[in-house]
Amino acid sequence: MRKPDTIERLYLDFDGFFASVEQQADRRLRGRPVGVVPFEGTDRTCVIACSREAKLFGVKNVMNVSEARERCPDIVLVPQKPDLYRRAHNTLLAEIESVIPIDAVKSIDELTCWLDESGREDPVGLGVRLKSTIARNVGPYVTCSIGFAANRQLAKMACKAGKRTEERYGDGLMIWRPEDLPAPLIVLPLSDVPGVGGRMEQRLARAGVYSMADLYALQPKHMRKLWGNVNGERLWYALHGYDIQAQPSERGMFGHGRVLPPESRTLPAAYEICRLLLIKAARRLRRAGYYCNGLMLWLALRGGEWSDQLKLPIVNDDQAVLAGLARLWERVRRKHSNGTQVFRVGVTLCELSLADQRQLDMLINDDRTRQKWESVSTAIDGLNARYGRTVMSLGPWKPPAGGHVGGKISYTRIPTAEDFW
Predict the structure, then answer these.
(1) Which stretches are annotated as coiled coil (predicted)?
(2) What is the span of the domain harbouring residue 174?
(3) Which ranges of the chain have pLDDT less than 70?
(4) What is the pLDDT of residue 365?
(5) pLDDT of 358
(6) pLDDT, tens digit, 9 for 90 and up, residues 34-86
(7) Residues 233, 288: one domain?
(8) Is the C-alpha dihedral spanning 377, 399, 274, 344 positive or negative?
């Protein structure tokens, strides 16, 4: 396994991305503490992103709006605009590509690049060029922090450390050269290691690992045992400066979730939103060239949650998945009354197979029916693509207040323009 003797990776993370894009797009928000919320008109939700001005008051992402108002009475709450953030993301990628090729986009606001010889020799100059290009061609309110290190994992951690330097937030730049390590690494909290959350910290504490220095001193096989898989050993090599490449991943599911606005928190209203989310998931399934063999439904309820799954024929058309949802919803209705409050819903199409590898179930003689409904779904997809919006759907198409059905930006997926139809 190769151990680089110089910096080879750049990791870039935009600062308070959703909030900074809002400030760049709306001059009335500039210089003010901004919190982005799922929808407007209620305090019974959380801040999903906040500006650097709000962070100075102690506001954090995923903080209840009521607590955010207590910490920062002047905070301006702005409902999310996922399509704006998607378009800003694509614009920023184009500007960065004009300076350095992008190796991998990790999320809506994070990416990584390989360094060429000039970047390795002058990382500060490269960072300045990237920041000035963004400020000049996009705007000065969308800032980023950049980390440089021998591998992607260390560059990501350096980026996070640089974001918090000199008692300020954002617009940072941090360089961790191999000869400088492990000094800047071992002073960090364990929570700064990507993938180490509260539960993993508890597991490490039970094993006598309380600090980054303790973790760094472990052996590779011990790390593997603590993590319960090879990822622990891979993390050991990454923290010690080895060139560890991300493992290729395979598509496992297509799904959508949504926090419900107050007026949609009844069972009937939640069902209608689940229908729309499932149609959006089925559209993505078809565009990617997959079929599914399973459907999962999840509901967050007052006082708990409910989930179940259903086996489907190998399908990808709207009629088949909606019929499956109706069957699952009957189970919901038998368990809960119409007065039950639903705060969040999620639908997932799983057990995937590629379209050119589809194998029909010999015990289900429905191929003619399936071909008919697949033709209907294909025709609907074609009309919607022609007009760039949902002009036809199987059943009513009435998005709830706030819209964004199927267009939510998650940590692992960046929506396409089609997701907002």
Answers:
(1) none
(2) 1-181
(3) 41-42, 166-167, 357-366, 401-404, 406-408, 410-412
(4) 59
(5) 62
(6) 999 987 766 778 899 999 999 989 999 889 999 999 999 999 999 999 889 99
(7) no
(8) positive
Q: Tell me what pLDDT residue 112 has.
A: 96
Residue with tokens 């690992």: 209
**Same structural domain, 156 and 169:** yes
Identity of the amino acid at 287: R
Per the structure, the count of domains in the chain is 3
Total-model pTM: 0.84
> 189 lies in a domain?
no
Give me the CATH number covering residue 346: 3.30.1490.100
Instruction: Check whether residue 307 and residue 221 sit in a common domain.
Output: no
Residue 314 lies in a domain: yes
